[in-house]
Amino acid sequence: MLSEAMLATAGVINRMGGIAAGTTVSDYHESEQNRQISVSATLMHLEWLGKKFNVLDCPGYADFISEGLGALRVGDFALVVVHANHGVGVGTDAVWKYSTEVGIPKMIVVNAFDKEETDFDATLAKIREHFGDRVFPMTIPINPGPGFNQVLDVPRNEIITYAGDKSGKYTEAPATGEWAEKVKQLHSQLIEFIAESDDALMEKFFAQGGLSEEEMRAGIHAAVQKQVFVPLFVTAAESNIGVARLMDIIAKYGSSPVDRQKVKASDGDGKDVEISLKDPDPVLYVFKTMSEAQFGELSFFRIYSGSVKFGSELYNTARRSTEKIGQIYQLNGKTRVSVPTLGAGDIGAVVKLKDTHTGNTLCGGKKHLSLPKVDYPKPNIHASLKSGVKGEEDKIATGLAALHHEDPTFIYTVDSELRQTIVSAQGELHLEVIADALRRRYNVHVDLGEPRVRYRETIKAKGDSKYRHKKQTGGAGQFAEVWMRIEPKPRDSGLEFTNSLVGQNVDRTFVPSVEKGVMKASEEGILAGYRVVDVKVDFYDGKMHPVDSKDIAFQIAGYFAFKEAFTAARPCLLEPIHLVEIRIPEDCMGKVMGDLSSRRGKIQGMDMEGGFQLIKATVPAKELYRYSSTLRSLTGGRGVHSESFSHYEEMPREAEHKVIEESKKAKQQPAAE
């Protein structure tokens, strides 16, 4: 809504749309309108006080953090929006951390001061708790709550009264009474921050006992760039209150490409180089790829040097191929305006590049440079993708590849062992959006389900068998007898096949045949259909027939001899255990620990990090299905986790029995997938 209000204030749109009606410029995709949340970063632009703003409106939901990371990678500063009722969320902390890592300044907007029960002082205190005492209010709400239309403008010493008709128009009057006193205190604090950002200003500050209005204004920009202080603004975007003054300050003191004229890159040999805004050769970074039904594929880019025009030939350093630039567009949501050229510092989109992906750098001239790619977080939730209709496999595979190309934070694997496609994403909503996009764009019938777990089978004792395979059906017969011993091996040592044959009972040419049979049985699984591991097999004797013994006979005998020996050796199931790292607010500790123990979790360690508890635990993979959703509900959306495979461990008896029973049932039913 804040970007909607900015567009309306600048006259780009005649009237503001709304989220419930699905009419905002930013949330124009079907999945956004259905869910009433942002899913994709949207590029918009406007002009204000003679400056061009490129606005990238990003989803706040943690599932779609990739969109925010791509935008931060090309942004000049981050405008971090906090809801006046909800305060700082996990997402706010994450965005703050990422903005700091990419080295861009932050400004904060506390929005929705027209809602009931807003408390500016409490919200400011909470924000300072997270982001430090240097967070400084440039505007303060005078009459928060329903009917909110007045803000105290600290740099100007004025009370701004908005018309309240969503036009963004306002009148100004000098601050009086308690507000004049408040503004005086804040003014002197602001001047101190500004003096701190510049040695010459600091000297003036002490010599004169303060700074003049001009000196203060001139110093705000540098102080924000160095983050000597973090400006905070108050708004009510739905009623367009406070937005015009926010835009004034962005236009006068905000960051522009000029503030970061040189950026780091690497050349063809991997050496560090710098790209300057003033270099004549074009260098651009593709930060987002999106497929649109009527347009095809759009690549969103930022230009770091030179200019780009229709027909330009650029080199893609990652793909080692040449790209011809087609039609260049400036975007306001789904509205596209074709432009002949764009220059350094600007952001735009181009249609139908043949082999360019998110994170690629395109260069002109003789340069072969690469700008650093975004480091995306690993997925933390997994689901199996089930197809309801036979023959759609190719369409699904094409769709998954295209969607991953657009959004690198979800990955998919086709698991041949478990015969299923696993989709991994940043959260449950992210999974649903991917499944929706597959259904809508590729017209396939898919559902999300619980992924099967890669259990393993092994033994706890020694076992042996003497298996005879004999088949006589008119003509050539089959005969083979295999004597086999098996014993457990250490964990993670795999399956070892040996032979200790002596004498002439079995021709050595049949050893590979027996091994083939053993390997087939171990891959199929004996107890519950899972791969056999950590077993030593010794083929020590047997019998053969001069005519009827052949390769296939010894394969079959090896297969069944191994099954018999395995069944006699106290077989058991192993389950995969994952290492889980969880970051939660301290007040949720009891609930999260209780939930972990119900999942057979074992705590490995605990730590504190800035008001958050870090828990490390090992948890069986089976117990982690949709864990991220549970964690969010236990922590009011403030908890995050990551998981990675750790090791295999013997299963408890009851759990093992359940898996074996499920496997027997599955064998009796025809395959559904």
What keyword list fits this structure?
Elongation Factor Tu (Ef-tu), domain 3, 673 residues, eight-stranded antiparallel sheet, alpha+beta, Alpha-Beta Plaits
Structural write-up:
This protein is an alpha+beta fold. It has five domains: 2-259, 3-Layer(aba) Sandwich (Rossmann fold), CATH 3.40.50; 261-363, Elongation Factor Tu (Ef-tu), domain 3 (Beta Barrel), CATH 2.40.30.10; 382-449, Elongation Factor G (Translational Gtpase), domain 3 (Alpha-Beta Plaits, 2-Layer Sandwich), CATH 3.30.70; 457-569, Ribosomal Protein S5, domain 2 (2-Layer Sandwich), CATH 3.30.230.10; 575-655, Alpha-Beta Plaits (2-Layer Sandwich). The protein is built from 16 helices and 35 strands. β3, α4 and β4 (106-111) form a beta-alpha-beta unit. It starts with a helix and ends in a 5-residue tail after the last helix. The relative contact order is 0.08.
CATH architecture of the largest domain: 3-Layer(aba) Sandwich
Count up the helices.
16
Portion of residues within helices: 25-40%
- The overall pLDDT, averaged over residues, is 88
How much strand? 25-35%
Number of strands: 35
Please identify the top-level CATH class of the largest domain.
Alpha Beta
How many separate domains make up the residues? Answer: 5
